Amino acid sequence: MRLKTFYYFFIFLTVPFVGCKDKPQKAETPSKTEIKETASDSVAIQEKEKKEEEEFELTEENAIDFFFDYQKDLKANKVKMTTRFGSFVIQLYDDVPYHKANFIYLTRKGYFDNTQFHRVVKDFIIQGGSSDDKRTADKRWDIGRYLLPPDTKKGYSHHRGTVSMPSSEMDNPHKLASPYEFFIVVTDPGSYHLDGDFTPFGKVIEGMDVVDEINAQPVGKGDWPQQNIYITKAEVIE
C-alpha cells in the first residue's frame, strides 16, 4: 500500500515538470527566430533602398523619364527662398511639369542652399543657382549632368516677377535649359523679348521687394555682385 501510494505521488510530481518543459519549446523558439529574421530583412531592404537612392544619378538618357514619373503625384507647387535681404516665395506652374518637377526635386535635395545670385543686371533680371564654391560643383556632380527641353508654348510671358530657366552654356542649338539655374524678371512691366527663347515656369507671389533689393546691389565684372548674395535656405512649402 505504501509502495503504491509512493508511486502515485511520484507520478504527480513528475508530470507537471514534463509539461512545463515541453510548452516553451513549441511556443517560443519559432516565434523568436521569425522576429529576428523579419527585423533583419527589413533593415537590409531599407539599407538597399537608401544605397540605390544615393547612387542614383540623372543623365541625358534618364532625366525626362525620371521627371515624368516624379511629377505624377507632385502636389507641392511653392518654394520659399531666404537671403540676407529677406525671403520670397515662388509659385510654380502646374502645366510646365518637367521644369516644375526639376525645381522641386533640386530644392528637396538641398541643391540651392548656399548657392548665389551670381548675375544681377540692373532693371532686368537676377539670376541664381550657381556659385564659385566647390560645394556647389560637388552637388551638381552627385545629382547628375543633364538638360531640360524648352517648354515655351504654354502661353506664359516674361512679366515682372516671372521665374524662367536660362539656356545652357554648352553647345546648344536647341536652347535646352540649364536645370540648376533660374532667373527672375524685375523689369516693369516685363521683358517680353525673352518670350519664345526661354521657359517661364513660375512667378514670385510674395517678397518681390526682396528681389528688387537684390537687383539694386552693386556689381562688378560679368554682372557678378560685388558682395556675394547667397540663398541661405530654399524649402518646398508642402
In the residues, how many domains can be counted?
A: 2
| Helix/strand order, N-terminal first | HHHEEHEEHEEEHEE
CA(first)-CA(last) distance = 87 Å
CATH class of the largest domain equals Mainly Beta
Shape: globular
Strand percent estimate:
15-25%
Given as residue ranges, the uncertain stretches (5+ residues, pLDDT < 50) are 1-35
* Percent helix: 25-40%
Total DSSP helices: 6
CATH superfamily of the largest domain: Cyclophilin-like
Structural class computed from helices and strand pairing: alpha+beta
CATH topology of the largest domain: Cyclophilin
Q: Tell me about the largest β-sheet.
A: 9 strands, antiparallel
* CATH architecture classification name of the largest domain: Beta Barrel
What is the average of the pLDDT values? 83
Number of strands: 9
User: What does the radius of gyration come to?
Assistant: 31 Å
Q: Strands of the largest sheet, in order across it?
A: 8-3-4-6-5-7-2-1-9
